[in-house]
Protein 1
Amino acid sequence: MNIYSVKAKFNEYESNINICLEGRTELEICKKLFGFLTDPETITLNYATYGTLMQATDCGTERFPVLVKATDFLTTKKAHLLDMYFEFYDEYMEDPEEIDASDVHVALTQGYFYHPLSGETIANFSNYIYPVFRPSAELKLYRQAVRQGVE
């Protein structure tokens, strides 16, 4: 993908946000996230939590469900800026451990989760599993184009 097609793709993403989310509560936050993620000042951001995104959009806890809807949209092919991952972290670990989304799905539907390192069943596993976001391949290409001075 050349630099100009990357720029065209992001113009399409921005248009999709405006068209697909018109009249919906998540439009404003989604536009703020788009601006935040494509801003040259955040070009080195490679990891974000909901907390990071709440700060970036000045979203209070009362609007958290709207932020979730906005981030969901930014993980779709209509505006693919983010990829969602899950991490497990407890008080015995130095660093979080990435876990498969399928493991999270099984845990939520069947009610049990195995510790990713010890294999032990974890009670209250939802207290230890966190969604995190990383730039999509498309966002990485866009940022590379920005670094090369083409905007």
Protein 2
Amino acid sequence: MNLINFLKTHTKINNEFIDDFFGLYDSKDKYNFTINIVAIAKWFDMTVGHIKDTLLYSYKEKIDYKIMKGKSNGLKGKPKDTILLTPKCFKLMAMQSKTKKAIEVREYYYELEQVIDQYKEYIIKGLEEKIKTLENNQKPKINPSKGIIYIIQTSDGVGHYKVGKTINLKQRLKQYNGDKKDDIIPLYVYETTQKIKNL
């Protein structure tokens, strides 16, 4: 599940707000110029010009925000520039703004940041489970010479178990795991003192 879907699923915050403020978010981008000044003006209930003046006066271009020059489409009028802010710059502006809307936006943003921390934990947990699965798949399969009684969990995901016996556990596990993405690992293995006829 990607970040946007996670936020929409685990919060009651307006989906449009999430799209406006996290739609372009990229964790790999060092500066993350992702928040459009137009979205800020809409949610702060302010003019783009007023916010732009604040940026020019109080913040640093190419660090807090960047201006992307508009391209001419051949029509009359000056092409519009696109101004993108970093999340940090946006948060600072929200903290400094005294409008009622800015207070509401701050609360939204704070709640979303908490959920983003949960999302990071969700990703880490998922990666840890994948690593555990891969580590299990790399474990060498034992092949003792005596009879073996074993218990495995079936691959149907329902929680069914199978008890079996074999004289060649390595071969038996190879048969089970031949068509499966992840190897089945025996939950219990008991080596008998007597030889067992293969099933």
